[in-house]
Amino acid sequence: MRSRLLQRNLRIDPPLALTGQGMLIHDSNGKAVIDGSGGAAVACLGHGHPRVLEAMRAQMDRLSYAHTALYSCEPAEQLADMVLEGEPGGLTHLYLCSSGSEGVEAALKLARQYFVEIGQPNRRNFIARRQSYHGNTLGALAAGGNMMRRAIYQPILSDAFHHVSACYAYRDRRDDESDAQYVARLAAELEAQFQSLGPDTVAAFIAEPVVGATLGCVAALPGYFQAVRAICDRHGALLILDEVMSGMGRTGTMHAWEQEGVPPDIQVVAKGLGGGYQPIGGIMIGAKIIDALRDGSGGFMHGHTYQAHPIASAAALAVQQVIREEGLLENVRAMGALLEQRLVERLGNHRHVGDIRGRGLFWCAEFVADRASKAVFDPALKLNERIKREAYERGLACYPMAGTIDGKRGDHVILSPPYIARPADIEAIVARFGDAVDAAIAGLP
Ligand code: PLP
């Protein structure tokens, strides 16, 4: 082991990513790899986009940093205007930070502050979903339900977070239930959670519109988010939607919630905001919260040294301009349809693929030992990791994960290519992915 960086795995030195161009990353072993997942659904414009690089250089020449206690800056102001321009949910303000987890922390704290400002300080509880991931900082981790990520930190997580089931029809809808009955059951579970906590103690319900890093691209059934919104409204709680992974165009609409028709009070964004060109995340906020702060204490009791950073904002501004000016949402929808079609053709009948699901350019295959019983593979086999390795051998980067299914680990692999993908890229991604799946399963002991 040579690396003195604390890597994710202390036993393996990963290759160095040396250069990136468009859909490709070139590594220190001389390998060119298609970035079939944009990292973790981050690199929405691929790598080395000239307009983004130029915008960053230009901003560096003008101003690298100014503290927000004294100043705002041009690119952050322009980014707020661009992101909020024509925003269909009535969200009026943008707070900028440096990651998805920071965005979730800001959302939770803002919800809490809002209720203090309007004279409801007893609202200290948050309801989230068991199958969810909201980030790795302590507040975000407490909100998330991913048991594998939470396990060793459980004793130091806040007790203000409570969990209900996510909407995961593939595994959790009973055979004798219709979609509507399943949604009604989930709504009843959420209502019961409000009642057991005391409805006037709940600040917010937080959920991912399309679950990312815990289940892999699971969208809710029609009617679910309407039911959730109605329950929050009935009890005066806020709805926070975490679109860190699924937002900013990834699912084919700018915001994933648009496909549900249910706008949130606070929306968290990150990955697709800056496309990985700079670390940046943020929250979009509705007018009633801003008004309460403006009429109350006068400001958000929160902040970070690097919030609304000029170069990060300039990079994100350029990313957002490119998405809008180059019609990339249309490309996400068209290439997403092709990706779905090819995945279903290649793996739809595979005896170890239980489910293929997703939206836009956000697709996942869930692997099962047995299709009929949906039994998971032995976690010790780490099938998702094996698929990642076989795919990399074949020149494809994908995003594997072990979800939590009934307390056990399940195997999922996400494909979330950049929005600039062309049909030939999609064909190559699915061809390499299909071969990797076959090779990984053939190689199981
Ligand atoms: N929320 C969701 C839905 C995510 O998928 C992630 C990261 O994968 C986060 C929050 C945390 O973001 P970050 O890793 O940038 O802190």
From TrEMBL:
Cofactor annotation: pyridoxal 5'-phosphate
Keyword Transferase among record annotations: yes
GO terms of molecular function: pyridoxal phosphate binding; transaminase activity
A Pfam family of this chain: Aminotran_3
Gene Ontology CC: one annotated term: cytosol
Keywords of the record: Aminotransferase, Pyridoxal phosphate, Transferase
Protein family according to the UniProt entry: Belongs to the class-III pyridoxal-phosphate-dependent aminotransferase family.
Name under which the protein is recorded: Adenosylmethionine-8-amino-7-oxononanoate aminotransferase
